[in-house]
Amino acid sequence: MSMKIETAFPGGNVFIEDINGFDILLTRDMRNSASTWFYWAFRAIFDQIGEYHFTFTTSNLLSSCGPAVSYDDGITWEWLGYECTNGSRNSFTYNFDGQKSNKVIFCTGMQYLPIHLEQFIARHNGSPYLSHSILTYSRKNRPVSLLHIEDTSSHGEKKHIFLSSRHHCCEMMATYALEGILETALGNDETGRRIRERYIIDSVPFADTDGVIDGDQGKNRIPHDHARDYGEHPIYPEVKAIQDLLLSEKQFFVLDMHCPWIYGGAQNETIYFPGPEEPDHAERLKLFSEILEKYSPADAPFYIGNHVPFGTLWHTKSNYSQGLPCVAWLRKTCTPVFAHAIEIPYAIASDKKLTVASVRALGRSIAESILEFDDRIKN
Ligand SMILES: [Zn+2]
């Protein structure tokens, strides 16, 4: 038997410690992150039917839905299920029965990589509203994508929306929600038309482009990560370019999209906003949260009761001692109407198993909520 493990693909991350028949021992690669984190992804190539046991050398690497699996080389994803882990957070069993592809990608969560962004752009190829350009080049000289949505045929004053994800590159589920917002803004229905009449949208789906492609953890990168780099002297070209973009126009609505810890805890399996320090921003976030609770889909529900006010749980001053994230920096630097982060779990939100479809639908509900929020803060 010559079962193989590969990591030479976008997002790949694992060290092979041992392959002994049907038992495989692996370590996730921390790269240059200072603390323990949980991202890993590998391709297994099976040449013999049987039950394979994958074990990691450290714990807390599996979601409450088990690993995510892809049978089409990382394009579509499903959960393997918590049952296959036998309640552990560092091992799972996979039964290769020969019915599906013998090449299977396993990952902490459902990957969203440049191929998914290319597919999104291709689905909207020919849209007069969407343009794709290069925001800047990453430290490794990769182009950083900027998506721009604008209906130039509709005149009148428009407000600016900015959406980002992957300041922590491993936080892949957030990008499906971001895609859901963009998809809604490009739609030919009433909601899409209303959004385009009122807003110009810019979006950077991969704020740490190198980390996304290389399969890094990204979180707690040394000396600090992309989400602690905002201020006078950013060290990442993406952050510098996003700062310039955000300061070039008054921002109406800025949403920086994240995923929390992999499972459990007080809030890691709920969708929530980390609250701001500033009372006026906290008030506006409360209004937006009330609206989003109403619109959020049943299979990716948002509840205002899961709010994490500033100064509670992990969201305290000491968490930002290395530097500011995008939205906190923007609130301190100028006067956006709304500038917040959102945390979208990897796998479970308030007891619902998340899927690509349900998280895209959450994105749609965020887009719908922006319209009502805008109407109501005028009153
Ligand atoms: Zn994050």
Question: Could you characterize the architecture of this molecule?
Answer:
The chain has 379 residues and is α+β, with helices and mostly antiparallel strands. It has two domains: 4-107, Immunoglobulin-like (Sandwich); 114-378, Zn peptidases (Aminopeptidase). It has eight helices and 17 strands. It has helices at residues 114-123, 173-185, 190-198, 209-214, 237-247, 279-295, 326-333, 356-378; strands spanning 4-6, 15-20, 23-27, 41-45, 50-56, 68-70, 78-79, 91-96, 103-107, 130-137, 143-149, 159-165, 199-204, 251-258, 338-343, 348-349, 352-353. The strands form four sheets. It has a six-stranded mixed beta sheet with strand order 10-11-13-12-14-15, with helices on both faces. The chain has a five-stranded antiparallel beta sheet with strand order 1-4-9-6-7, with no helix packed on it. β10 and β11 (143-149) form a beta hairpin. α6 (279-295) packs across α8 (356-378). The radius of gyration is 21 Å and the shape is globular. The N and C termini lie far apart (70 Å). The model has no long low-confidence stretch (mean pLDDT 97). Bound molecules: zinc ion. The site of zinc ion (ZN) has 5 residues, from loops.
